[in-house]
Hints:
Blueprint: H1 8-33, E1 51-59, E2 64-71, E3 76-80, H2 87-95, H3 98-101, H4 109-118, H5 126-147, H6 151-154, E4 162-164, E5 167-168, H7 172-180, E6 185-189, H8 204-221, E7 226-230, H9 237-247, E8 255-256, H10 264-271, E9 278-280, H11 286-296, E10 301-302, H12 306-309, H13 311-324, E11 328-329, H14 337-347, E12 390-392, H15 410-414
Parallel strand pairs: 5-6, 6-7, 7-8, 8-9, 9-10, 10-11
Antiparallel strand pairs: 1-2, 2-3, 4-12
Helix pairs in contact: 2-5, 4-5, 7-8, 8-9, 11-13, 13-14
Amino acid sequence: MTPSPVSRRSWLKNITVGMTGLLAAERLGRAAEAPAPTSRALADPRAALKITRLEIIPVNSLRTIFVKLHTDAGIVGIGEGTVEGRIGTVVAAIKELEDYLIGKDPRQPAHHWQAIYRQAFYRGDIILTSALSAVDIAMWDIKGKALGVPVYELLGGPTRDRIRVYGQAESPQAARNIVAEGYTSMKTSTTDSRGRPSRYSENPDFIEGLVEKVASIREVVGPKFDLGIEMHADHQPQVAMVIIKALEKFSPWFFEEPIQHQNLPLMAEMAKKTHIPFATGERLVTKWQFRDVLSFGSAQFLQPDITHCGGITELKAIATLAEAYYAAMLPHSREGIVGSVASMHVCATIPNLLAHELPSLQAATGGRPVERSYLGKSYITKPLTMTAGHIVLQGNIDGPGLGITLDENLIENERGVPEWEFPARWDAFDGSVLDH
């Protein structure tokens, strides 16, 4: 029997079908070889989720308070809120939030922030906002764990792959150690000089003492190193301005808290008299107080502390507000590692980050002999690692939620550590009270 002729169209069709089949088979083969993607989500987004318990953990060695929010799905969120030297007061304020939180869905941190802040009647108080900060951070941690993504993904995704951090040193030798650790930036304080605090008007010897200190540190770190000046609002305005002018020649990175924050208009006037940026904000809370800093022009670098200002929800809002004024973010973070990590999640997502502070261990005395570090050793199971003066997101905070877990020995490690108190400051010259 003579075979029927095959048309060009039929031939092409058969070839196409055959190739499609081969490609499909190849894809199936590759799919079979490749491991199936695994979800890190701990809860179905459509399923109910409720807070069942609030656990409060004072951490005296860091002058702070950690919290755990437990849920009926077994997901536990961790947070931090504090007012240094007032741990008992803030513990009471956090405890008062328990009745509101129990039974609520923690995946709505923005809604709960509004309810806790606005229904308290008294607003903008650092005790109340520190308590709010603790539970807000914990709710974001739960939300990230429930969905299986880092908090920074919930905030719009990263704008950078690492967070620049800076050190602090008070002597040339300490500055050498900072450089050796890999930092490319640091700050030093200019409070006392020649062994005494400043007064309402100062003599050349006092000013020269501060100049000598900064000169010796600048000589160690060199001209390519960013060197900030911490004034800590310890000086009266007229003396602060003299110090600023005397130190301008060292090209500081910034002057931090040149005067007390209660006088923002005066700080703004001072800012106009120097080309060096001002930084302030560690004692301020909420977007409304930072709005005043920006609208007056009191500072170009903002220093909100996530454990004071209102948590993740509010730090993100403050950063967005700062962006509109072309101001940079320089978050304060001297207390616990939980707050530092939460702050870094926010900073990973904003365009206007300058650098980030790391916790201090100045209160880590007493109690059991435990090895601690400002990167989280003895507080979290996997301490952070620093690379060339940065905390790289990947491998540090890229796990679900905050990406960290509290050390199971934390409570025992804190046993016997006394609560830290601000040291009293008196002028030995006449016994008068000094600013802190």
